[in-house]
Design brief:
Layout (H helix, E strand, L loop, with lengths): L1 H8 L8 H16 L3 H17 L3 H8 L1 H4 L9
Helix pairs in contact: 3-4
Length: about 80
């Protein structure tokens, strides 16, 4: 999932309509937001682990932002 999200995010506006990508990401964020807090934190950890295995620095940097971008580590969950 991290690789797919990052690939879409890093694709040019000519290849993927930015409005469409935004809609996809908003829908995904809503779905992920419905997960229990423990599951969101686990997914955030999986995204981070995937990022650390990525050899391309630009992709790794983008993947590292996924937990924050999708609200997986919100402190309001406690």
């Amino acid at each position: 999932m991290a690789q797919l999200i990052t690939a879409i995010d890093m694709t040019s506006d000519e290849e993927v309509d930015p409005d469409l990508a935004t809609t996809w990401f908003e829908d995904l964020a809503d779905t992920l937001g419905e997960l229990p807090p423990a599951d969101r934190l686990r997914l955030a950890g999986l995204f981070k682990a995937t990022a650390e295995q990525e050899t391309r620095s630009d992709v790794r940097a983008s993947m590292r932002k996924l937990p924050e971008n999708f609200g997986l580590e919100d402190e309001d969950d406690s």
